[in-house]
Amino acid sequence: MALGKDYAAQDCSLARALEVVGERWTLLIVRDAFYGVRRFSDFLVHLDIPRAVLSARLQSLVDAGVLVKDGHDYVLTEMGRELWPVVHTLARWAEDHLSAEPCRVFVHLACGTEIGPDGRCAKCGRHVAPEELEIHAGPGVRRRTDPVSMVLRKPHRLLEPIRT
């Protein structure tokens, strides 16, 4: 029996969310959009994803209202930016349970302090919005040589567009 593409039989909000962000590669595209990746070619090289799959996932995210296409750029919408706690928490869960060291560290710009697993600044106690965060390469980041990875090694503000 073929694997279905939706969760129509499920009466569950999580199932509806998975219909939008649950396919392979989709959350990595959203993650990269938070990191400032905006162009198709940059998603392609950084994710090392098949071109047809990337096209389909980007279109799906645009159709769902998570991304908007602005010229050559794909930009997170407000709906997409609301996925930040999910992306951050899932990454922290993986760091805690599946890897030894964090690949990325997120610092609250106002306080200069790393945010915790719950998204709160350790110094001021606030939940920090993604646009108030700076991303730093962590000790567990792989030393890839693609142009996007090279740009992402340097600290920069989340959501700020990168250019390769």
UniProtKB/TrEMBL annotation:
GO molecular function: DNA binding
Alphabetical keyword list: DNA-binding, Transcription, Transcription regulation
Chain ranges of the HTH hxlR-type domain: 12-102
Gene3D superfamilies, per database record: Winged helix-like DNA-binding domain superfamily/Winged helix DNA-binding domain (1.10.10.10)
Pfam entry (one): HxlR
The protein, known as: Transcriptional regulator, HxlR family
